[in-house]
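Usage

Read records sequentially. Each one opens with the input sequence:
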Amino acid sequence: MVDRIVPNSIVYTDTYRSYNVLDMSEFKHYRSNHSRRFVKRHKHINGIENFWNQGKRHLRKFNGEPRLHFNLFIKECEWRFNTPNPRQQLTQLKEWVRYSMG
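and closes with the structure output:
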């Protein structure tokens, strides 16, 4: 994990022991102890857990994706997550097509 996280990032995790290594890294590490308090102000991991749950469900349809294009699949999942309304998705797609057609 340490090799893949950009320095000065903020990382939120639960209290699982494997995350102890993050305390000695070049970024801020916040923990959520779910047994004591599930959310502390804005510090929780529900958002990313929700994103990965939806992303995995969407990607399962493809029965695996090429490693080379994985980042594009994830970007699509991010867009779908941040634009949950199907009408809004369609409107955005139409705008992008119009823009790309010149």
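Summary fields computed downstream for this record:
- Strands lie at 10-14, 28-32.
- The radius of gyration is 18 Å.
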